Amino acid sequence: MKFSEGKSYLSKLAIASSIVTINALAIAPSQAMNLIQNGSFENINGTFVNNGAGFMPLGNGSTIIPGWTTTNPFVAWISDSNGFGVRTPFGTFSPDLKTGSNVGGLAQTINIIITVNIDCYHL
Length: 123
Hints:
Layout: E1 10-15, E2 18-27, E3 55-58, E4 69-70, E5 75-79, E6 93-96, E7 98-99, E8 102-103, E9 106-114
Parallel strand pairs: 2-9
Antiparallel strand pairs: 1-2, 3-5, 4-9, 5-6, 7-8
């Protein structure tokens, strides 16, 4: 994706079954930061409620996973302490985006402003 100095762009980026929306607002290289909030889906707010099997089913529009919103009702939030042997290499929690034949989805909005001349920006 190319950005021209002084212009704002709106772009959507699909990552697996997740959707990340980027609204161009403001950032310069000296202000670089992690744009995705809670990218490893951790329980940073203490909102995980174990259903007894090490996961938590989430409904459509749920914001239980900090920084994320479910886009349909086919998402479960899984702890590494689950009884299925599913483990994440990045932290201790992960989303399950496949329940039976259904595919789940997660979304997050990222706001940035491009204030310098940048040829290319990579997520």
